[in-house]
Amino acid sequence: MKKFVLSSFALLCATMSFAQEAKKPIDWNGLLKNRLQLHAYAQGGFTYQEKANPNNSFELKRVILFAVGRITENWTVMLMHNVVSGAFQEYWTDYRFHPALGIRVGQMKTPFSIENPIAPTELEMISVCSQASTYLSGVGSDQLYGPQIGRDLGIMIYGDIVPGTLKYELGVYNGQGINKKDANNQKDVIGKLTVTPTKGLDVVGSFQVGKGHAVGTSIFNPTIKVGDDYTRNRWSLGAMYKSPEFNLRAEYLAGKDGDVKSEGYYATGCVPVAKNFDIVASYDKMTYNKQAGMKQTNYVAGLQYWFYKECRIQLQYSRCEPSFTDGYNKIEAQMQFSF
To answer: What is the DSSP string of 158-199?
Structure first.
């Protein structure tokens, strides 16, 4: 099935490119090399959690295959498939009219928060995103929204208002997550503004407004039942700095689901200490229900070793302190392959 999809995808790119260059001889090798890029990555490892009933397991977290086809200099199409879940995660087409105006249509990562749009292969934490980004971006821990891996179906415009200094992203989405029709016919609007005042530093603000349609129940918001429509709004403000000496990312995020308010913040850093070796650390606090005081704080420290380009080995220790259950320790090891 995957071979058929990729073959069809390559044929589509080739056919549409030929329409642009109908009078030129067909160079299959050159066409595929210049117009089609195939990528893949895999992340898996071992996790030990010291809870009342300790558990440990080897785990294949994700195996991702994706293809990017460049039909013209301004027109791109993309397909992404998760082998582990068997689901298509992304499928969109993108056209750049001008540096200040591009349009993307299909299923894509939403622009809310700093962390959600960043690939797992680039983020320092084995758990990938912070608690607040995971919960408020619909990555996985919000049971009302379900595990949507930070993606949705819709349309987005984007561009560089001032190249290298100011860019925007603004989209309208179903608000129901991946591979689903809208269940309440009320769309979510998500936007982001990124300012780069100096080299390496991004200051980022984002928002989301809309109506959710509950697909599950949540201990953090028990008054909302399966099938209920509810107000679902979010906003965030943060900054990210990258340099050869260190990387640092910090962000505050807040949300309101129905009558329940939530908020969280994190600071995650990475410092190279030797050739291909980094020390990583994170402070991560999330209040899932401010009125009820339901919150969790995670302290994370670890090492990572880059043994080949985007391939690495990670080892991390976490101390997790939730208010609604006993605290516990967690040790994680992970290997990442990417090309």
So the answer is: EEEEETTTEEEEEEEE-SS-TT---SSS--EEEEEEEEEEET
